[in-house]
Amino acid sequence: MENSSDADNNCQENIDKSRALYIFYSSVVGLEFILGILLNISVIHLFIFKLKFWKSKTIDIFLFNLVLADILLLIGLPVKAYNFQQCSENKVVCKVQLFLQFLNRGASIAFLTVISIYRYYSVVHPGRRKPLRILKRSPQISICIWVLLGILTIPAMLQSFIRCNSNEHDEEFNYVVLLREIVFFTQILIPFFVLVYCSIRIINRLIQRSVGDKTKLRRAMFLVTTVVLVFAVCFLPYAITRAVQLKMNGLVMKEEKVAVVKLYDGFLCLSYLNCLLDPILYCLSSSKFKKIYMSMYLPFLLEKQQPEISDDNADE
């Protein structure tokens, strides 16, 4: 393994060669932070002070936790933007940023998956009371998700040296690293297949139940399909390049590794876009929530809108 001074020199050399690219990455992350934090904070404000989510429907509690996870993930983005431009970092700050990234990205994906499963049973199997009764215990399920992910995130914090910058030297493989990578790929790939399955079944069920209301059907199908596409675009390229990066570790020339690292960092920036799109897809897709949101923050647009067919039932 390289010593720390050699790693810093290699990192600086790689950064200098791609200064413009990493400044662009840093700018993208900064923009995602500003837009995402404003949108998510405004949404969570409505959940707390207008909807009083703890007294609302089951799905509102899951949505609140989804937005909360996105906010906590966004908090670490300024550090990530800084690390895209610098090779040196405070190791304590680095570990905190990585903890936020692993924990809250996992929580965001977990709550997204639970919401899809809840909607699947509500639309496709409304008569199966036992699964719905379990899913309606949303406070207990939410606590279990946070606790479980907190435990699974511990391996990311146990390494004696944890990378904040992808341009640094290769990690020494051990069981902690293996466990961390298993958690990483599991929390992306399994939810993706669950989302695809639930979405296909929901669309088929909506088509069967449609009795002439084509507008509502199209909107519901568009929402379900968009959720899967956003997940695929944000997370699958990120996971695939991570797998390639791990496979190439120690097996190829330095220049090839640098090219994959640049691609990985670009897809990492893209993955943060999910935090910006979640509130739009899951909260503002509800006619009721959208009306409250726009009347409070964008009243000038509400006056121009035509009456809409409510799609709240398709959302749940």
TrEMBL record:
Its main location: membrane. The keyword Membrane applies. It is a multi-pass membrane protein. GO terms for molecular function: G protein-coupled receptor activity. PROSITE patterns: G_PROTEIN_RECEP_F1_2. It holds the Pfam family 7tm_1. The chain crosses the membrane at residues 22-49, 61-82, 102-121, 141-162, 182-200, 220-240, 260-284. Residues 39-282 form the G-protein coupled receptors family 1 profile domain. Keywords: G-protein coupled receptor, Membrane, Receptor, Transducer, Transmembrane, Transmembrane helix. The keyword Membrane applies. One of its GO terms (cellular component) is membrane. InterPro entries: GPCR_Rhodpsn, GPCR_Rhodpsn_7TM, HCARs. It is found in: Membrane. PANTHER family: 12-(S)-HYDROXY-5,8,10,14-EICOSATETRAENOIC ACID RECEPTOR (PTHR46048:SF11), HYDROXYCARBOXYLIC ACID RECEPTOR 2 (PTHR46048). This is G-protein coupled receptors family 1 profile domain-containing protein. It comes from Phoxinus phoxinus.
